[in-house]
Write a structure and sequence with these properties.
homotetramer, alpha/beta, 7-stranded mixed β-sheet, 5-stranded mixed β-sheet, 13 helices
């Protein structure tokens, strides 16, 4: 079914179609429509919406529901996500699947409610304690808000790990066409869950391993699944990269601006391409290394002071110069602004 | 005065000498002796110790005391630090000085209470939301627990930014000689503080900037001070690096094991050196690039699945191969274990 | 249907039959089976069971559900009820119906988990702030645990006021036959509720009246309904009172011991009767005054240091001497113990 | 020293002079000036002022400080006091001294911030669980706000029990002359306190007594001290009662209105007197019975729907008719209003 839909609402449409039946959260601009949609949709399908007393409580409720085998989620913006870091670390440590949506706003601190991408480090590197990774997907459209939420539930279950939909106030608030196919979600068996039944009575969900050797073994097991995810799950888009002298790199809403900038640049005869990471973790490092191999310069654009640029540099490992252009505080660069950057960089190269 | 002292206790001795007069925290193993010492020492010097109802409350009390111009601190271990991420982001956004001690334990989740270094990402990359950096110091001895805590208060005030003492259960719990000079702390003027006086009535401490241009300007101002810190504050130690074929890199307790391994290796005629980052942010990238320039391999050792290794790779930028060896769950590698790694790596090189 | 049932479980059987569809609470011995039963039964009838983060939260959730027109309840024991006093006062002030079950245990403070009747003042006089009354019903059997819970929902709706089932660890934990008729509850219309619909958008649920005249008018309106309840709702049982020289007065489990003591006394030719208040508020003052008119002494027995005895004295107003016999700490007097009291009192009279 | 002072401020001046060195609270109108004064005065004498995160936390902090032997207090209005009922019951159960000030406002629920006396039941009968009593003092002037606070600390220590200063928005907000003598408080020894010293290590502060006999014994011990207080501590004022046909009874601000009404009535030749309870618990029952013995009618006036009137009736026990006149919602009766009541009542008598 085709419909006009706001990005944040699309998240919950996707979630419900993915079989999500539990939402725990605390409202915050610019993520609140996700909670509102959850409150509207979940009771209609026999699910639970609960506004928790705080984000700390919300993420621990997600922990509980996930432990019971239910597809569960929360959503917030930066300040709320910071409050959830302990819970996320516990969920990752207990190897439980869940989906968390971060509709990024200006920071740090209270900041403002306009779009930024400055939670990258917190969500991709792991803002909580201990060695773990979130699976992180970065949608750039309303359609992807729904699709990636559904994918996030799949990957969360596949890897028994938190999966994050990392988006921003721009994508969350915009309204675009959305195509959804209403089909019954195929839910995986979860024989490890604690369901209050005789069969699952022996199951133990824990993030405590008192003996060092035992915890190290647990961490090795987690590392192995992370290595598997790094081998199999990187996702990305490449556009006009084959002959690009300058390869632009950006994710989320920025990738759409950059794509338009590539089109504009190509009209002017400038050989510019785009690499858009779709998964931020696992980061598509190998694909980026290949896509940038023939470029003379890589230009990373972010709505921050520079965070993903580190993963770009790690991927390229010194083979091509990597430059950074950032905006923040809610300012999103225009196509013209990027064009001017391109001209400056290519002119600099020529001279 | 020379005395035998436990690492965690040395933290508070340093803090009191540095003029710290407010401690807010919630106890957690293996950091609890810091709270105990704070409860013992601070009232003796007219200071405040308060056990908060949670880590969320504790860090917000630190925010308040710091806003009033008091040298204030908290301490915890991984789970508690995760709960403080929102508050830390707010303190950084409001440009307030404070000191936070993280005595790292095994993670993720509840994990265990043995040493790890797996909060590196959370503390160095910034586990909270928005573009900010913590200044991060990594002591490796009881003496440094005191000295770096004092230094942390100096740097926090100098940059009006949170400064983190990132240590672990090993350094926190061990007992070593400690030399302290009892001198009156020289406290800087803080004309920006809100002291409840007529003069400071106009002062405003905030982390909210509703207009995007205003927030971006604020972020640029923060970026400038971060650039200044990156230019002036990197600290490190180099040992036997000049002719090293293999350069070991490790911080905190690991650096002491590596130094012994270097000494052992040199006895065997193996040309091995050590680079020890003392500041983890700003990371001593340039010094490391120089120290590793003539090496054939860099081997990073951490008590984690690999976190600082990313900063090492960013510093070296592909010029020398960077390998990683990690232990976790509370296991600390022995000198022999590192020696075996060195032989394997150098043998591999020869063959 | 006739079945063997525990008192606390009977509460929830009655609640579900009464159309209760929302339970919010925090477990505490000796009331926990009520929460357990709620967790078991309510989802089966499309209702909500939620274990709140505290009793403070639980009673405020009851407030919310009651405002939405749902038959809602909570249950706890003394310490939990104390934490609910603010919420109960708010619910009464907002004129909302709800049912609260207090399974009294030994107090004050943490006390112990054995039966007492020492929350009488808190529940009957109103432990919260402001002039309000709870309707209070005191069951003495498993059958009454179910029946009075159902009645409590009826009275709560009729008077738009909290109704309390005041019972104790003895009645809550004992197992007896229970007869229940499974019939659809007839729920009253609640045109005043806030249901999230267009029709109820104008409805306002509030306990705030800023202008003194406005609040006084509100209080007068409440006083009028309390006067109506005092005229129409007093309930009690009288046993062998017509010719009694000594009239025993006791409620709940005590009334059963007293009834046996009356039977024993009558066998010995002692003219003893029993007055059992069933509603503690409104207190059956007039009926008690009449029943005691020809007695020479009234002996009140409570599991406390003496609380209901004040309402007995107020009812009798000096016309007959009122004596008190109490046990506490979880001790329940035996029939023999009461018999000895009777003999002593009657002997005293004779001599 | 003589000074003009607001009632709420006088409370803290008295508290500091009484040696109070710890205040924990959460602000609420019309009690907030007490917290403000505590924040101002206590640090000047080396004491602690702490704004807690809630009233529940505040009263538990009072518990802790009282257990350590410090004279500690809190203050609030009705809604806050309701939240403290669990803590008060625990403090009473643990036999700890503390002072709690209730500046009563309009209720129930949020009500308003104008004066009422409707927390009488909650504070005098015991709004918390279990058999305990608060000592309750009812000041009627700014001078008494200071004096009774000082007395409350004395009685609290003497009986190891919470002592309540029960006042209202009128007395709390009014400004009158205050005479204070600055003298060092004589603090009693508290060998039972837990002071973190070797000597007090064996001391145990508890409100838990698992065995029924043990708890009953504890309750009997408490009952004995309550009986002692009832024998020794009732305080009251009598004015023109000797030949009064109508005896007015009122406490706090009402007693001042009633005194003026007596003076007015006497000018008109009406034989009217006043009985003012100063302690509400222990209630001066015997003195009231004596003072009313020759009256033809007792008229109780309260700022509520009638609460203290029950204690008046219990004291008089049917010997004289007891009538009630109440105002609420923040309305305080005028002298003329009481005069009209007197005329009506005496007229009724004559006819």
């Amino acid at each position: 079914m085709r419909q006009l839909c706001k990005g944040n609402v699309a998240v919950m449409k996707g979630a419900v179609l993915a079989g999500c039946r539990a939402y725990y959260g605390y409202p915050i601009t610019p993520a609140s429509e996700i909670a509102e949609s959850a409150a509207l949709y979940l009771p209609q399908v026999g699910g639970t919406f609960l506004q928790a007393e705080s984000e700390v409580a919300a993420i621990n409720m997600v922990y509980g529901a996930a432990a019971a085998g239910v597809r569960a989620m929360s959503a917030s913006s930066g300040p709320g996500l910071s409050l959830m870091q302990e819970g996320i670390s516990y969920i990752a440590g207990a190897e439980l699947p869940c989906v968390i949506v971060d509709v990024m706003r200006g920071g740090p601190g209270l900041g403002n409610i306009a779009p930024e991408q400055s939670d990258y480090f917190a969500m991709v590197k792991g803002g909580g304690h201990g060695s773990y990774h979130n699976i992180v997907l970065a949608p750039a459209s309303v359609q992807e808000m729904a699709d990636f939420t559904m994918l996030a539930f799949e990957l969360a279950d596949l890897y028994r790990n938190p999966a994050v939909v990392l988006t921003d106030a721009f994508v969350g608030q915009m309204i675009e066409p959305l195509d959804l196919e209403y089909a019954e979600a195929k839910l995986p068996e979860k024989p490890w869950a604690v369901k209050g039944t005789v069969e699952t009575r022996k199951n133990l969900i824990a993030s405590i391993f008192l003996e060092p050797d035992q915890l190290e073994e647990h961490n090795h097991k987690m590392d192995e699944k992370y290595a598997r995810a790094q081998a199999e799950e990187p996702r990305y888009e490449v556009f006009e990269a084959a002959d690009a002298e300058i390869l632009l790199v950006g994710y989320g809403i920025v990738s759409r601006v950059l794509r338009s900038a590539v089109e504009e640049a190509r009209k002017d005869g400038l050989r510019v391409g785009l690499f858009r990471p779709v998964t931020l973790w696992p980061f598509p490092s190998q694909a980026l290394a290949e896509a940038s191999a023939r470029a003379q310069k890589v230009l990373v654009v972010e709505l921050s002071s520079g965070q993903m640029v580190e993963d770009v540099r790690l991927a390229i490992n010194g083979k091509v110069p990597v430059e950074f252009y950032g905006r923040s505080g809610g300012n999103v660069p225009s196509v013209e602004e990027i064009h001017a950057q391109l001209v400056a960089h290519m002119g600099a190269k020529v001279s």
